[in-house]
């Protein structure tokens, strides 16, 4: 564990350098052979060759999208785990991703929406609805909000939205063709314009999350203690919920429902820097980008020349970790 502030800063710097290396590797490696000089030439001497088009239209957007989505999902998971005191909390487990996906499929199936802006707002709306329903169900009963009830409510809502989504897709082949690969979670084939359209919301979420660290540290001491110290706990929770919806909804709008990033990364961040959320959140951002970039690079080689959807790769990596956390118990 990194205990001193200077060592934590060094860790962040090292992580950012690692992200840069992985971005470069994401542009270089794949089915089509690309060299570093090809990348440089595509910017300074673009000649409309196949390699240059692949670099500009495919590899660079794909790398940037993977980094942005990985960071967003990891931050959302860290904030969810902190606010709910539940180590299993994440956008995928609590049905946030499933709710966003469900609303996107509704838009395609019943309203013929195919625009980037339409997908974005539908994803935000679905993520917000899922968050409200899960939180409400988890609060029912004399015991109030507990980690166990939150997890059960999240699993139930995720299953409900997923079942409804699959049901609509079986009734509408046009929708199935349009969103099936997107529902598996993928960053390949995504246009840079898609990231640009969602980026303002993600930036708001990233910046706002950095101001949540100190408030979450106080809230982790208990709501009564936080209120006694003058903190408006309701405002903190609402702010966290808005950030989660912006980041998780934006990530789903870009890449579809990619799971397990929000579970794995916050635990690794806390193992590295402890429970100080002033450090957990930025570490989660960097580590989330690293993990999704590595998963995307690996997805290209697993069954080459075909590619595995990145959502399948993260599930393959995250499922054993999820089982490990679940076996430790969610009341730790």
Based on helices, strands and strand pairing, what is the structural class? Answer: mainly alpha
Low-confidence region ranges:
none
CATH-level-2 architecture: Orthogonal Bundle
What is the oligomeric state here?
single chain
For CATH, the homologous superfamily is named as: ABC transporter involved in vitamin B12 uptake, BtuC
Major beta sheet, specifics?
A: none
Q: Tell how many strands the DSSP assignment holds.
A: 0
- Calculate the mean pLDDT score and round it: 85
**Helicity level, as a percent range?**
over 70%
Number of domains: 1
Q: Using the alpha-carbon principal axes, give the shape.
A: globular
Q: List the helices and strands in order.
A: HHHHHHHHHHHHHH
The radius of gyration is 20 Å
What is the CATH level 1 assignment? Mainly Alpha
What is the count of helical runs? Answer: 14
End-to-end span in angstroms? 19 Å
Here the CATH topology equals ABC transporter involved in vitamin B12 uptake, BtuC
Provide tags for this entry.
globular; ABC transporter involved in vitamin B12 uptake, BtuC; 332 residues; mainly alpha; 14 helices
Q: Can you tell me about this structure?
A:
The chain has 14 helices and no strands. By secondary structure, the protein is an all-alpha fold. The protein has a single domain, classed as ABC transporter involved in vitamin B12 uptake, BtuC (Orthogonal Bundle). Helix 3 packs parallel to helix 8, helix 4 crosses helix 5 and helix 9 crosses helix 13. The longest helix is centred in the N-terminal third of the chain and has 35 residues. The two termini are 19 Å apart. The mean pLDDT is 85. Keywords: Cell membrane, Membrane, Transmembrane, Transmembrane helix, Transport.
């Amino acid at each position: 564990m990194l205990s001193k502030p200077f060592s934590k800063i060094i860790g962040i710097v090292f992580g950012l350098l690692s992200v840069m290396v992985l971005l470069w590797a994401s542009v270089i490696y794949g089915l089509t052979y690309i060299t570093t000089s090809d990348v440089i030439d595509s910017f300074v001497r673009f000649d409309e060759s196949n390699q240059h088009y692949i670099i500009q239209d495919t590899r660079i957007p794909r790398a940037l999208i993977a980094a942005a989505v990985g960071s967003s999902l990891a931050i959302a998971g860290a904030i969810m785990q902190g606010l709910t005191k539940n180590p299993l909390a994440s956008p995928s487990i609590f049905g946030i991703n499933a709710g966003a996906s469900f609303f996107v499929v509704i838009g395609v199936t019943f309203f013929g929406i195919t625009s980037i802006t339409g997908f974005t707002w539908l994803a935000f709306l679905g993520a917000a609805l899922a968050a409200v329903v899960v939180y409400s169900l988890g609060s029912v009963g004399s015991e109030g909000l507990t980690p166990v009830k939150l997890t059960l409510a999240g699993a139930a809502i995720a299953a409900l939205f997923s079942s409804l989504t699959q049901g609509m897709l079986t009734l509408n082949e046009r929708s199935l063709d349009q969103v099936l690969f997107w529902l598996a979670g993928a960053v390949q084939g995504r246009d840079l314009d898609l990231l640009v359209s969602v980026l303002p919301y993600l930036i708001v979420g990233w910046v706002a999350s950095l101001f949540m660290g100190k408030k979450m540290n106080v809230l982790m001491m208990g709501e009564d203690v936080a209120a006694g110290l003058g903190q408006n706990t309701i405002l903190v929770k609402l702010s966290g919920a808005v950030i989660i919806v912006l980041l998780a909804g934006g990530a789903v709008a870009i890449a579809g429902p990619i799971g397990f990033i929000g579970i794995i990364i916050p635990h690794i961040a806390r193992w590295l820097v402890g429970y100080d959320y002033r450090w957990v959140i930025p570490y989660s951002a960097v580590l989330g980008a690293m993990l999704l970039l590595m998963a995307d690079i690996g997805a290209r080689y697993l069954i080459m020349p075909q590619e595995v959807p990145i959502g399948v790769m993260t599930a393959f990596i995250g499922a054993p970790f999820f089982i490990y956390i679940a076996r430790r118990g969610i009341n730790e």
